[in-house]
Design a protein that fits this description.
The protein contains 17 helices and twelve strands. The chain has about 400 residues and is of the alpha+beta class. Strands 3-2-1-6-5-4 form a six-stranded antiparallel beta sheet. Strands 7, 8, 9, 10, 11 and 12 form a six-stranded antiparallel beta sheet that branches. The longest helix has about 40 residues. It starts with a helix and ends in an 11-residue tail after the last helix.
């Protein structure tokens, strides 16, 4: 090859494969459908092919959905069978981050191939003979691809040449950026929805976790409440600030919700909705937390987000919200209410007895009856419930203590 021919070949190799307007459409895609449509155009431009297929993850359920540039969509049952039979998946899973997979590297010769179940149930119905798959793993890479596109040629057509595979590899980086951008957008949207749930419900303590149960955001009260759950202390007692640690019982609730969600998606890949669960404190009776799994768009690529509401509840009554003491007070007799209201000001049993003209033993008896009747687990919890009342409703004069007592 002379110098001029070599330079012409180099210029041809360096020539842009994708038109600028296609790149703009690719990076402007706001949802998965728009991304797939643009990816089809880009791949048809890069190489000559009969059709292009997109395999995409129905969140939390593996690569379960598929559509192609001919307008065909595959049902979940077909995709489960595809994943069971395809030789490509084991190769991809054994090579995390692999970008390009070609049929010539993973399929046997045609005579042997035609005897396989994969050929009869998958390749023939799809009209697929030669293909090059482009795998996208996310950033950071996940344990399996979250998006796969495949350029396909029918029976009787020639296989993709090494030069065409090289063109597809050059296109891969553009598609990869677009896939990661959309994935980040979907994840941010799910977190925003989780934040909206926490704010809307007016919780005083909250934490938002990603799909790996790693902390995304938490307010100071949420951190203190979680620390109390981890240490099994009275959740109404302030805790010292400490490094974040997810309580085991709340982590288990998140995993149970994820399993319930995956079961729902398996039955209906387009199902939508959030899941919520109340969790009882393992050692403090009546104290609960709320766990909400924010269900992502199942036609997208985001994973779920978990919202923990940790506002300290005793038998469903929020300890830190205004005027929530009334349901507890209504369960008490007049004598019990009198003792409780003096207790709310922080006085000892002796001081309560002196102010109300009772014996210390009578005060202890009435407090024991209050705990048993209302389900409030401790003195500190009762004080927290009663102090949730407006200050003007619980303002009292200090008791007069006689000299010498």
């Amino acid at each position: 090859m002379n110098v001029m021919s070599r330079r012409s070949s180099e210029r041809a190799a360096d020539a842009p494969i994708v038109a600028p307007e296609q790149l703009l459409a690719l990076f402007a895609a706001k949802d998965l459908d728009a991304l797939i449509d643009t990816a089809f155009d880009v791949l048809h431009t890069a190489v000559v092919c009969d059709f292009v297929t997109a395999f995409y993850r129905s969140s939390g359920n593996g690569l379960m959905k598929e559509r192609d540039s001919l307008g065909r969509e595959s049902a979940p049952a077909f995709m489960r069978r595809y994943m069971e039979l395809t030789p490509a998946l084991p190769i991809a899973m054994a090579s995390p981050g692999i970008k390009i997979l070609a049929t010539r590297t993973i399929l046997p010769p045609i005579a042997e191939l035609q005897r396989t179940v994969f050929y009869r149930e998958i390749m023939q119905p799809q009209g697929w003979r030669h293909a090059v798959a482009l795998c996208f793993w996310g950033d950071p890479p996940g344990a399996s691809p979250l998006f796969v596109t495949t350029t396909c040629r029918r029976e009787g057509r020639s296989d993709f040449s090494p030069q065409e595979s090289a063109r597809l590899e050059r296109v891969h980086r553009f598609l990869d950026c677009a896939v990661n951008r959309l994935n980040e957008r979907e994840a941010a949207k799910t977190v925003r929805e989780g934040m909206a749930i926490a704010v809307r419900d007016g919780t005083r303590g909250f934490a938002i976790l990603d799909h790996n149960l790693l902390l995304v955001q938490a307010n100071p009260i949420g951190r203190l409440r979680c620390a109390a759950w981890v240490d099994h202390r009275d959740v109404t007692t302030p805790a010292r600030p400490r490094a974040w640690q997810l309580p085991t019982v709340l982590a288990a609730a998140c995993r149970e919700l994820r399993h319930e969600w995956q079961t729902s998606v398996r039955a209906d890949p387009d199902a939508i909705g959030n899941l919520r669960r109340q969790v009882l404190h393992p050692r403090v009776p009546g104290v609960t937390a709320s766990v909400t799994m924010v269900w992502p768009n199942t036609t997208g690529m985001a994973e779920p987000t978990f919202v923990l509401e940790l506002d300290g509840r005793v038998n469903g009554i929020a300890l830190e919200t205004p005027d929530r003491s009334m349901p507890v007070l209504q369960q008490m007799t007049a004598s019990e209410r009198a003792v409780a209201m003096v207790l709310a000001d922080g006085f000892s049993n002796q001081e309560i007895a002196d102010q109300l003209g009772k014996t210390v033993y009578a005060v202890k008896f009435l407090l024991h009856r209050i705990y048993r009747k209302t389900g409030v687990p401790s003195r500190a919890a009762l004080v927290a419930v009663l102090r949730s009342r407006p200050r003007r409703a619980r303002k009292r004069a200090k008791p007069r203590i006689r000299r010498g007592d």
